[in-house]
Amino acid sequence: MYEDINPLPRLLMGPGPINADPRVLRAMSAQLLGQFDPQFRMYMRETMALYRDIFETKHEWTFVIDGTARSAIETVMVSVIEPSDRVVVASFGRFGQLKVEIAKRCGADVRVIEAPWGTVFAPEQIEAAIKQHQPKLLAICQGDTSTTMLQPLDQIGAICRKHGVLLQVDATASIGGAALPVDAWQIDCVTGGLQKCLAGPSGAAPITLSDRMAEVIRKRRHIEEGLRPKDYVPGAGRVIASNYFDLAMIMDYWSDKALNHHTEATSMLYASRECARIYLQEGRPSILKRHAVASGALVAGIEAMGLKVYGDKAHKMPNVTGIYIPDGVNGDRVRACMLNDFNIEIGTSFGPLHGKIWRIGTMGYNARKDCVLVTLGALETALSAEGHRVARGAAVDAALAIHRSAERAG
Ligand SMILES: Cc1ncc(COP(=O)(O)O)c(C=O)c1O
After folding, report:
1. What is the pLDDT of residues 156-179, one digit of tens each?
2. What are the pLDDT digits (tens) for 56-84?
């Protein structure tokens, strides 16, 4: 017989997933309820309200998609895009490329603008692309973990409104760790994930939709046979090509109509609700500061060790840091030493950055002083074991100094 599941006590310091907050794991172990149980419907409504606070929005259509973060991205695209609709994807890394891929599969006429990896877009570049291509939808990441860059979005929503374009933001990696006031920034749609700054597991994806985006989707509302109410009038638009990812039906399911769709992933709903509850209990200012301090301390440690941080530092995500692998060092062997000798996971990287940088996450439950310090200490030893000499102790001292000064400032 196979043994019980008994995971090694890893510290997950990669670009996500990270260790879940134990309170989230406890919530997930609660007994199941049926999705039409009044108590469960109450948990669903509470989850909607909690995520409105997280997204800083009044959008009625704020809920959770059952699936990992890319399922929410795909849900939006398949429900909004009709074949030949023009879509601009502003891509500054691998997760921009993912949105290109999904939009193409939805039959969109995709126009891609690219910022070199390690940089972000100026708002003027986005506006120029919108003027040139006149898309229905603009899709962009807030934080792209592949390059560790954080795209400023404060002006993009207004630009999209001015030109009548819908704005879809992928905040999988940044939601909770970086400011994203959805209403103030006039964003039509944001999708996230739990497994990074929200301190949960992957498998549920918070989403919020503006009324104008919901209207576009509602026009394509076609309820599946067997569930149609007597007064059912199908939408005038084209049937959404996916049943599972049909946002019009998913909205009916989350609404007070409680129209059946999928069997709710009950334990993931508990997890989503608990992630949001814990987040709001600590409070946004404290959490944003915790991420900024942990990231600042990590960077200080890396530089004190004589290593170089990847990319435009002014636009680095506050929860993931790219670090150049020093010349002559085998990056995979260093990662293996950290994993096997210290139980610490750090990230490799994709595409053009593969073999060139490591990525270290300081987010969610792991955006903590102790996590930063032990990771730096382990990295220092792993580098020494590979014959790369660093000033011993300098990294941990520098990181500790940042944390101490933040603690003194209160
Ligand atoms: C920016 C971004 N978008 C999308 C995804 C895909 O998320 P998932 O693996 O949860 O489907 C990730 C995963 O790391 C991500 O960082």
Report:
1. 999 999 999 999 999 999 999 999
2. 999 999 999 999 999 999 999 999 999 99
Q: What is the pLDDT of residue 11?
A: 98
Ligand 1 in contact with 74 (CB < 6 A)?
no
pLDDT of residue 229: 87
CA 172 to ligand 1 center in whole angstroms: 6
pLDDT given at position 410: 82
Q: Tell me the DSSP string of 321-347.
A: EEEEPPTT--HHHHHHHHHHHH-EE-B
Kindly indicate whether the domain formed by 284-409 is annotated with CATH number 3.90.1150.10.
yes
Task: Supply the residue whose CA is at minimum distance from atom 8 of ligand 1.
Answer: 69
- Who contacts 316 (Cβ-Cβ below 8 Å, separation ≥6)? 148, 149, 150, 295, 299, 309
Per-residue model confidence (pLDDT) at position 251: 97
Burial of 313 (0-12, 13-18, 19+ CB in 10 A): exposed
- What is the per-residue DSSP string for 25-93? HHHHTSPP--TTSHHHHHHHHHHHHHHHHHHT---SEEEEEES-HHHHHHHHHHHH--TT-EEEEEESS
CATH number for region 31-280? 3.40.640.10
Rounded Cα distance between 175 and 374, Å, is 25
Q: Is the CB of 92 under 6 A from ligand 1?
A: no
Contacts 24+ apart (CB under 8 A), 404-409: 406/289, 406/293, 406/296
> Does the beta carbon of 198 sit less than 6 angstroms from any atom of ligand 1?
no
**Would you place residue 354 in the very low, low, confident or very high pLDDT band (cuts 50, 70, 90)?**
very high
Residues pairing with 11 in the sheet? 344
Inform me whether the pLDDT recorded for 385 exceeds 90. Answer: yes
Helices (H) and strands (E) in the chain, counts: 13, 13
- 356 touches 324 (CB < 8 A): yes
Whether this prediction's pTM lies above 0.70 is answered by: yes
pLDDT digits (tens, 9 = 90+) for 260-312: 999 999 999 999 999 999 999 999 999 999 999 999 999 999 999 999 999 99
Kindly list the domain boundaries of the chain, sorted by start residue: 31-280, 284-409
Residue 203 Cβ contacting ligand 1 at under 6 Å: no
Taking the CA of residue 143 as reference, the ligand 1 atom at the shortest distance is 1
Q: In this structure, what token pair is assigned to residue 140?
A: 């962009």
- How far is C-alpha 169 from the chain's CA centre? 10
Are 363 and 16 in contact by the 8 Å Cβ rule? The answer is: yes
